[in-house]
Amino acid sequence: MAVADIVIKQESIEAVDLESKILALCKDNGKGISDAIIQQSMPSIPAQQRVMAINRLLSTGRLELLKSGSTLLYRYKDSESVSKVKGFELEEKLVYQIIEEAGNKGIWIRDIRYKSNLQLTQVNKILKTLESKKLIKAIKSVAASKKKVYMLFNLEPDQSVTGGSWYSDQDFESEFVDVLNQQCFKFLQQKAAEAKKVCSDPLAHKNASYGSSHDILKFITDLGISKVQLSIKDIETILDTLIFDGKLEMTIVNDTSAGSSREYKQKKLYRAVKPILSSTGLVRVPCGLCPVVDKCEEGSAISPSTCIYMKEWLEY
Amino acid sequence: MSASQLRLSSHILKEHYGEIVEKVGLNILRKGWTTIASIKQDTGLAISKIKKSICILIQHNLVKFQKNARGQVTYSAQISNILTIHQYPKLTYCAKVTFGDAAELIIEELLHHGSMTMSSIVANVTNRLLDPALSQSEQIDYEHVANQFVELVKGHLIKRSLGDEIMVISKGTEEAKLDVVRANDMEYDLPLGYITSASGKRKAVSNNDGPAAKKRKSSNEQVSIDFKDADMLWKVNILQFYHHLVNELIENAVRNRLDEFAAEIVKVMLKLTILTRDGFSPQTKPVSVYEIDERLSDSSEIDSDEIAQYLNLLQDDEVGFVSKVGENSGGLYVVNIKKSMEAICVQTIESVVRERCGSKSMRIFKLLLLKQHLEQKQVEDLIMVPAKEAKELLYNLLSEKFINLQEVPRATDYAPSRTFYLFSVNISQVCRMLLDRSYKTLSNLICRRHHETEEQRRLVEKSEKINAAILALKSQGMDNDSPAVQEMEEMMTDQEKQQLTKLKTVLSKLERSELQVGDTVLTFTQFLALNS
């Protein structure tokens, strides 16, 4: 992981330099240069990086593409906005570095201001230009929907920012969670049903109906309902909600199967359980569910004799 | 005693004993201890009527009396006994299931009359069973009924009404204690008259081999029996019936959780220990695997190994229905009545929460129950629901009073930013709230039932009149096709007939619901009684 980070950092620094080099080259040749000339003047840069730099310059509007005959020419595009940016160069670099330091956790605009000692408007402007250059990106944090954090363009945001597997675009995917919840329960239910068929012995039946979180994860992954790779921890949180629903029972056993020399690992086993009673009598009558039951009184505006819920229920 | 309990009591008294008794009963309930003079002042009823009402109430064990320091006789009502009247159908049904038809009628008879002598009970029940309207497959005679009566006494489901409270008050304390001890011994003694007559009868039957002739004769005339027990009154032992009902609840819970066999085992364990259960003990007396095996061997093909396995399962279950207390005689086990009832009660509450607030709220409720104290943030993280929705559900639960909020300040100034807000669940508190709501629901249902009948009173009366007329015509020898009967039938229009059937379905629905809510009440009251 650490090695990858360093590589990324070098790349992005180089990208900025490379862009300025290409720009300088283009400025020297007012009529525009071809790809071959750029390649000649900086042979050490791999083709892919060059293409990336050129593409970025094109997309930010500092270069323009011309066609002369069969070859493509790049020409420097002189516009006001671009020339203004040049004045910021130093501050831009400072802000860039601050954002870089924050890594994949990102950094809030106020913190950038404190660290850089710049005016808010100035910081805003720099952030905007950096964003338009596709060097950084703004991500909305799940913790506070209005809080934007900035990080380098090519970084994958941290779980604490995105909220992990359960979030997409700062929204909690409750449907996804519900589907997983149902599938996990279904898996264990089926397992219990199968165990009942195979084992006549009550104790063996109970033991066969247990499934570990690993088994369940494998089942869910094989189903292919999840676009993201789920971890054991993710599945265990889902299974926990099923325990809170009163549908599962969990026991922890020591896992001896994974290498005898290693220390014992704890393994969580889950089992579907049946509820000990169906819905109670109170909720089968309207009063059990009535939102105004506390205000209900014989002779008052809400009373059992004139109750509309009761009327509907009796006519049903 | 809550307002909804009072309201329900008044409905029950009115329905079963009429308006005057209701007025008197309610007045006594409101006053705590009160005298006849004060009742007269409050209700404005005639002394004779008040006296009669109190007699009725005392006869049914709904009111007790004592002499106060100034020598006045004061009365106090037993609200728990009044509310139990609502469970009477359940008690008779329980007797029917465990002992049979005659037992059902005995209990019904006793509940109807409050307290009676054995002779009159047996006579009445035998007469009812011999009623020609009932087609009986088996031969009935009073011996059979008397045997069922003895069975019920042996099962402690009925006991003697000894009036020990009166003795305690009227005599000196030491003497009274002696009396009570004696009373406990005598509680299940049968009348001497019966014991001698039973042995005599048996001899008589063996000597003269014509029992059938005797039975035939008795079916024509009213049976009257005298065991010479005019001073021995019997009453229903409600507490023992509650034990039976609790057992049934636990059996059902085990059946739902595991299977039929497990329920069968628990049933045997509970049955073996029901007589030795004292008051509201949290566990039964220990039962050995051998005993269970012996009881089960003739009814099912389950062997003792499997029984041990099932007991293990029951022990390992989350609820912990049974636990092992010893290794002797194949393993000694007890049934955890309190634990089981708690689990049943919690599930009942959960089902209310689920129906009222949705399954996600139920998840929050259960989470708080398991983890006890949690902050809002922790709840939001653990239940896997979007934070905004979770917040809404949580505070909805709080406003419905299912969960509590506790402030734990870090500083003395109670500043919200420096305070922990912890949510928690208190089961017995929620239980009491829902019990009260159940009482309210019951009175609402009764109220609605009265309202429905009142609205269609004219129609009901008309149909009753017509039916009576048709019956009268039929008794004169006319059959269904005769013009007179048909003319009477046509007096009800089709629309009226429809209305009548609709009323009938509505009433039966309401009555059925009353019984179902009664089940909820039973669960809650028994749980609270075990917990107190």
Automatic annotation (TrEMBL), chain A:
Cell compartments where the protein resides: Nucleus
Gene Ontology BP terms: transcription by RNA polymerase III
Key words, A-Z: DNA-directed RNA polymerase, Nucleus, Transcription
One GO CC term, this protein: nucleoplasm
Entry-linked InterPro entries: RNA_pol_Rpc34, RNA_pol_Rpc34-like, WH-like_DNA-bd_sf, WH_DNA-bd_sf
Main location group: nucleus
Tree of life domain: Eukaryota
Keyword Transcription: yes
Classification via PANTHER family: RNA POLYMERASE III DNA DIRECTED , 39KD SUBUNIT-RELATED (PTHR12780)
Functional note: DNA-dependent RNA polymerase catalyzes the transcription of DNA into RNA using the four ribonucleoside triphosphates as substrates. Specific peripheric component of RNA polymerase III which synthesizes small RNAs, such as 5S rRNA and tRNAs.
Family statement: Belongs to the eukaryotic RPC34/RPC39 RNA polymerase subunit family.
Protein name: DNA-directed RNA polymerase III subunit RPC6
TrEMBL record, chain B:
InterPro entries: POLR3C_WHD, RNA_pol_III_RPC82-rel_HTH, RNA_pol_III_Rpc82_C, RPC3, WH-like_DNA-bd_sf
GO biological process: DNA-templated transcription
Span of domain DNA-directed RNA polymerase III subunit RPC3 winged-helix: 349-425
Pfam hit, one: RNA_pol_Rpc82
Keyword terms of this UniProt record: DNA-directed RNA polymerase, Nucleus, Transcription
Record has Lipid biosynthesis as a keyword: no
Domain RNA polymerase III subunit RPC82-related helix-turn-helix as annotated: residue spans: 8-67
GO molecular function, one term: single-stranded DNA binding
Domain of life: Eukaryota
Domain (RNA polymerase III Rpc82 C -terminal) ranges: 202-343
Gene3D superfamilies recorded: 6.10.140.1450, Winged helix-like DNA-binding domain superfamily/Winged helix DNA-binding domain
Protein's cellular compartments: Nucleus
Subunit-structure text: Component of the RNA polymerase III (Pol III) complex consisting of 17 subunits.
Stored PANTHER family: DNA-DIRECTED RNA POLYMERASE III SUBUNIT RPC3 (PTHR12949:SF0), RNA POLYMERASE III DNA DIRECTED -RELATED (PTHR12949)
Family: Belongs to the eukaryotic RPC3/POLR3C RNA polymerase subunit family.
Record's function text: DNA-dependent RNA polymerase catalyzes the transcription of DNA into RNA using the four ribonucleoside triphosphates as substrates. Specific core component of RNA polymerase III which synthesizes small RNAs, such as 5S rRNA and tRNAs.
Protein name per its UniProtKB record: DNA-directed RNA polymerase III subunit RPC3
Source species of the chain: Paramuricea clavata (Red gorgonian)
